[in-house]
Amino acid sequence: MSARRVAVISAGLSTPSSSRMLADRLAVATSAALSVRGADVIVDAIELRDHAHAITDNMITGFARPELEAAINAVVSADAIIAVTPVFSSSYSGLFKSFIDVLDPDSLRGTPVLLGANGGTPRHSLALDYALRPLFAYLHADVVPTGVYASSADWGGVDEGIAPLAERIERAGRELAEAITRREPARMADPFDPDSYLGEGRSFGHLLGGLAGE
């Protein structure tokens, strides 16, 4: 089996970030489950915090800086995506949504996606179902059944909540690995290939700032 590429999107704003910590653990669980199935794994970690200004510029101008274009390439050409956001005001963060908005709406069609979120209280766990799932359903992504929400108590180490979190992470990673193995390997996006995401996936109007959709 050829190597599978997993893009890990983390929308945390702080350093260190609980979102990145959760994203990394989900990536490890997915990689372990894929290794059991005989697949090599390449993980592309994308910290949206590092691209915040470039994402804003892209939304205004319709053009991405080279480093943001590389991040977009990694996401749309991946075999699967792990997407983790902090929960702000009972939903995904503005930075997370802004990055999703600069992707072509068709670029994630059929891509297996594992959703994760973190927040200070367990009360926000439903954001996975009423905010994140509808967003990726609109994009026609293949979202795995288990989403993983981590509250502050889940990171306590000796807290009883840590075991359920570990179990949810393992189950979600296994589900994503199963979804990946059912799917044909993705190929790297080539900006000079008319069949890559810069050709069919992203229309010329989209590259000019979404003019075709206005």
Automatic annotation (TrEMBL):
Residues 5-155 form the NADPH-dependent FMN reductase-like domain. Pfam families: FMN_red. Keywords: Flavoprotein, FMN, Oxidoreductase. The keyword Cell inner membrane does not apply. It comes from the Bacteria. Gene3D superfamilies: 3.40.50.360. InterPro entries: CE1759_FMN_reduct, Flavoprotein-like_sf, FMN_Rdtase-like_dom, NAD(P)H-dep_FMN_reductase. SUPFAM superfamilies: Flavoproteins. This is FMN reductase. It comes from Microbacterium sediminicola.
